[in-house]
Design goal:
Blueprint: H1 15-26, H2 37-48, E1 52-57, E2 66-70, E3 75-80, H3 85-101, H4 111-116, H5 122-129, H6 137-150, H7 169-185
Parallel strand pairs: 1-3
Antiparallel strand pairs: 2-3
Protein name: IrrE N-terminal-like domain-containing protein
Organism: Streptomyces noursei (Streptomyces albulus)
Amino acid sequence: MAPRWPWISREAIDDGFRRRCEERVRSLALPQRDLTIDGLCERLSQLRGRPLEVVAAPLPIGSPDGLLVETESQDLIVYEERLAPVHQQQVFFHEVGHFICDHPAQDVLNASAQSLLPSLDPQMIQRVLGRVHSHSEQEREAEYVGSLIGRQFGTWSQERRRSVPPEAQELAARLSALEHKRQRAMP
């Protein structure tokens, strides 16, 4: 079974890796037909015991195109709203892959991250921003699990606007303010 996205080579996915990822997806017991983003989020929320919301927001230039934000009471997948729909879909499923695999963050944050988001819990910031973004095992696993789930969907709906839930409005506003500040500073 070839991965959906070409930067994961066949050689990079050995049988153990493939079986482990496929088992993670099978264990979710997702419907085989008519799976939607809302249905997937509802199922993942049931399994995790707290809501999972999807938020489109203008993220600062140079930041990741997507973030998985885990709090005590809910989880959020934030993706860059200005991406092409197919890229939005890719980012969403990649973050879903991290969510399903329960990947821990790495200790790579510095003080500037907390200065940008001072009202947020430092452990939550670590969970969001501290993951290694490279060709690590975690990134390959998130990409492959995301591609397996993505195969069960049709096209990403560009028409659907996702509202920002009240609990995420402060985070969305801060991210948006960072982007607007940067745009004004550019010549």
